[in-house]
């Protein structure tokens, strides 16, 4: 599913890459940028957290002209006199203006690095409203945002992820090169698909999916191990042996024939005559009397 | 400076990497010995250092640095070191009659403005840092600028919000690392256990997470998980993040144990302490 998301088939999509301090999602974000550039799209990056040089590190060739880096890194709060882009400019009008200015006819992809920065300074409702308007507005074809899941309360994170069409949560993998991506994708029909994949990213930011772990809710089927295999002696039964085994009457299981044989003594066996005397407690209402033994 | 730590970090006073944001953190332990390392290291590397010493007096740092072979007084006189002594500057904020003799730029009092009203944030502290490191008098003889902060968590106790401290560290990173191509090293401390599900909005845990996202190198100091030991004072986890050449490794981590001596600290791989071997 990760490769499909990278190929970016659907327009109006909003992908959120959730990372944590244990595993950074910025490499995957760069992979998305590279994939969008391969599709000849214009990429607008709202860079709050890293500078232009670091973000463009790895983008080669002529594609670099199609990356429009809007510098929100140098002065996001307007502490100097000439801020390039501040966090307060994150609203529909400003962003539409920004995108329309630079890309002319190509579909534009908006990349936000990172949404956590914006959520720290604007209210979650305002951010969600702007994101929703951007998606419906048509100025950008797709939005890809990086979110640091461990920096926000669950409610904030949940509200923002609810807006997304796909959420990719990244965790560190078994060895240092690999990472695990848990993907939740919401299609237009309302169907939700989940997947878990192990991937690693090459130097040129192409993603290789190593294996799919599959969604966790299907029970893992394990092959039953045959205990009678690979032994030096034979534990298996042939058909005649099985029939003889089933015919065998077990010693302490009472069938009807055996019961009547025991209870009604045959000819020649002894009889027991019992006369209760005064010391015996012969209770007419003996609760054990109705036992059929 | 600690020579073993230099080899671990692949750094030496002659060749220093630029543009690094180093986060020194500790949990129920004391990582201030690493601040002394970086202070003496960068002074020996002939860098221009701005040191925000918010928790101890100048004499304390001076005494420790002398044992490590560097004189802070001389560095200050030569103009290599700009020292903001938070403790004495805060007095001048709280009682304006005192004359402000702390910082040679005469702006130390303004830098601690947040003490009057923590809600205004740390913009004036950032302005102090920016003006100390980007002033061009005598800048030619010194190397890249370095900012050291000891420590950020005390700002939280003084009423500054986590968001304001993260903004301050962001702006310091922009100015010192990206624009001036220098380095930043900050200390942040944590008291409690690490909580997986952090529901609270404010607090040193959130600050630590935010700083970890911003930095390129973390040194996390903790006590030994097995308890107190006389010969090993704790463990340091060194974690490199955001490296330029993407070799496919997301982060690289190394764990060391350390022991602090009178004139330094020694670092060794776990289990190889000289007391044990």
TrEMBL record, chain A:
Any Pfam family: Elong_Iki1
Gene Ontology terms: cellular component: cytosol; elongator holoenzyme complex; nucleus
Cellular compartment(s): Cytoplasm; Nucleus
UniProt GO MF annotations: tRNA binding
UniProt-listed CDD domains: Elp5
Pathway, per record: tRNA modification; 5-methoxycarbonylmethyl-2-thiouridine-tRNA biosynthesis
Coiled-coil region: none
InterPro entries, A to Z: Elp5 (IPR019519), P-loop_NTPase (IPR027417)
Superkingdom of source: Eukaryota
One of the GO BP terms on file: tRNA wobble uridine modification
Feature: compositional bias, Acidic residues: 277-293
Keyword annotations from UniProtKB, A to Z: Cytoplasm, Nucleus, tRNA processing
Region (Disordered): 262-293
Major subcellular site: cytoplasm
Annotated family: Belongs to the ELP5 family.
UniProt-recorded name of the protein: Elongator complex protein 5
């Amino acid at each position: 599913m990760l490769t499909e998301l990278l190929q970016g088939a659907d327009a109006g999509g909003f992908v959120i890459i959730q990372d944590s301090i244990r595993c950074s999602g910025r490499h995957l974000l760069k992979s998305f940028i590279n994939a969008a550039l391969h599709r000849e799209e214009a990429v607008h990056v709202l860079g709050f957290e890293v500078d232009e040089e670091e973000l463009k590190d790895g983008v080669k060739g002529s594609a670099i002209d199609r990356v429009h880096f809007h510098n929100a890194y140098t002065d996001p709060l307007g502490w100097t006199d000439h801020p390039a882009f501040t966090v307060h400019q994150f609203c529909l009008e400003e962003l539409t203006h920004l995108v329309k200015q630079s890309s002319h006819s190509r579909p534009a992809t908006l990349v936000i690095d990172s949404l956590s920065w914006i959520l720290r300074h604007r209210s979650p409702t305002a951010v969600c409203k702007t994101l929703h308007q951007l998606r419906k507005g048509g100025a950008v074809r797709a939005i890809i945002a990086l979110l640091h899941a461990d920096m926000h309360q669950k409610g904030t994170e949940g509200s923002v992820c609810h807006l997304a069409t796909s959420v990719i949560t990244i965790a560190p993998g078994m060895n240092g090169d690999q990472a695990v991506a848990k993907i939740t994708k919401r299609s237009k029909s309302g169907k939700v698909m989940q997947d878990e994949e192990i991937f690693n990213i090459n130097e040129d930011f192409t993603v290789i999916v190593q294996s799919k772990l599959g969604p966790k809710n299907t029970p893992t089927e394990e092959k039953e191990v045959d205990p009678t295999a690979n032994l030096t002696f034979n534990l298996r039964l042939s058909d005649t042996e099985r029939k003889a085994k089933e015919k065998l009457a077990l010693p302490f299981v009472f069938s009807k024939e055996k019961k009547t044989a025991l209870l009604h003594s045959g000819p020649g066996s002894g009889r027991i005559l019992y006369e209760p005397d005064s010391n015996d407690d012969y209770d007419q209402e003996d609760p054990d009397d109705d036992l059929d033994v | 400076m600690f020579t073993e730590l230099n080899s671990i970090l692949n750094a030496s006073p002659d060749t220093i990497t630029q543009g690094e944001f180093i986060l020194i953190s500790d949990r129920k332990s004391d990582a201030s010995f690493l601040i002394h390392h970086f202070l003496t290291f960068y002074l020996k590397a002939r860098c221009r250092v701005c040191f925000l010493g918010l928790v101890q007096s100048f004499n304390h740092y001076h005494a420790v640095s002398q044992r490590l072979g560097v004189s802070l007084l001389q560095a200050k006189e030569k103009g290599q070191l700009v020292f903001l002594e938070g403790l004495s500057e805060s007095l001048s904020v709280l009682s304006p009659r005192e004359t402000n003799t702390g910082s040679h730029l005469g702006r130390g009092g303004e830098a601690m403005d947040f003490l009057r009203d923590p809600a205004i944030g740390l913009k004036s502290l950032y302005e102090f840092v920016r003006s100390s490191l980007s002033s061009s008098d005598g800048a030619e003889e010194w190397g890249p600028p370095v900012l050291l902060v000891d420590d950020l968590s005390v700002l939280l106790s003084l009423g500054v919000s986590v968001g304001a401290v993260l903004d301050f560290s962001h702006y310091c990173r922009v100015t010192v690392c990206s624009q001036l191509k220098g380095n930043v090293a900050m200390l942040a401390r944590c008291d409690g256990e690490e909580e997986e599900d952090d529901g609270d909005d404010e607090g040193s845990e959130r600050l630590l997470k935010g700083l970890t996202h911003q930095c390129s190198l973390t040194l996390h100091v903790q006590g030994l998980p097995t308890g107190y030991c006389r010969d090993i004072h704790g463990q340091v986890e060194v974690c490199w993040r955001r490296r330029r050449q993407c070799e496919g490794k997301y982060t690289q981590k190394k764990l060391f144990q350390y022991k602090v001596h009178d004139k330094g600290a020694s670092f060794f791989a776990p289990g190889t302490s000289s007391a044990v071997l």
